[in-house]
Amino acid sequence: MPAVTVDNVLTLPRVEEPVSSAVSRPVRSVTTAPQGFEGEGFPVRRAFAGVDLAALDPFIHMDQMGEVDYAPGEPKGTPWHPHRGFETVTYIIDGTFVHRDSNGGGGQITDGDTQWMTAGSGLLHIETPPESLVMSGGLFHGLQLWVNLPSTMKMSPPRYQDIRGGEVALLSSPDGGALLRVIAGELDGHAGPGITHTPISIVHATVAPGARVRLPWNPSHNALVYVLNGRGTVGPDRRPLRMGQLAVLGAGDVIEVGADDSQESRSPALDLYIMGGRPIREPVAAYGPFVMNTRAELMQAFEDFQAGRLGTIPSEPHPGHDVL
């Protein structure tokens, strides 16, 4: 799991140890993500399955894509499809994805990169492995998180952010036991590059075997801890947590996690995707690729899509022909 790393974590700025009076967030629930397939057939874990939307707010949905080691000819993506009313945050840890959308956004995202797409009023997009990866096969692993938009921003113009892996804020835990990558929002005053409509923070943490970490966390935000790889514990009571499990935490000032002394050879450390945001607390009407506030708005989204008002698929140039 390369993502973005450093040779010596102790050279990085350090997150301050929370004060002794800070309250560690208790564990409200631990759920195990069921496995399935998405798009043209790539394997995913449905990270939020079975969790009440009110506990996730402002997040809606998350898929862990892979980890899968493709043989040549096997890599798969998604066909063109619509979105409206939310943002997609695609984080690639291993491998490469190519994104295009009907609003002109797009590009290639690879090890440690994040593609942040605000669907807003609506667009069409596609995510595919590059031809070189299809031909060679190889390791593929990533996440796609859906972030809700408040009603006042549901119909905002689409926007695309291309966040290179080298742009994330790299931090160390106080004792150097964890590498912390701040993708969006902030951690202990250190800001990540992602520009968000909804106030949120996203951190990819790699915790060394046997290390324990207490992260200061905005008390007005909720807190979710998802295990990408490895085994460890979460919360003040050290609740066991392993790959593919999500912990929903309660109120408090601190997120407390720890890595087991012994890890699997394929995942030598505990890797966590930590999320939190200020709840929107509005009704959610979601179906398929649309996340709105009412059933009427949801029906309008389908009608607009069918009428072609969410954009058109860009034409593909044909080799050997002039493009007019």
Overall mean pLDDT stands at: 91
CATH class: Mainly Beta
Q: How many strand elements? A: 26
CATH architecture: Sandwich
Low-confidence stretches: 317-324
Alpha-carbon Rg, integer: 20 Å
The helix count comes to 3
Bin the strand percentage: 35-45%
- Termini separation: 44 Å
The CATH superfamily name is Jelly Rolls
CATH topology: Jelly Rolls
Specify the helix fraction band. Answer: under 10%
Domains counted in the coordinates: how many? 1
Q: Secondary-structure element sequence? A: EEEHEEEEEEEHEEEEEEEEEEEEEEEEH
General form: globular
Computed structural class: mainly beta
Strand order of the largest sheet: 1-22-19-24-17-14-13
Biggest sheet character = 7 strands, antiparallel
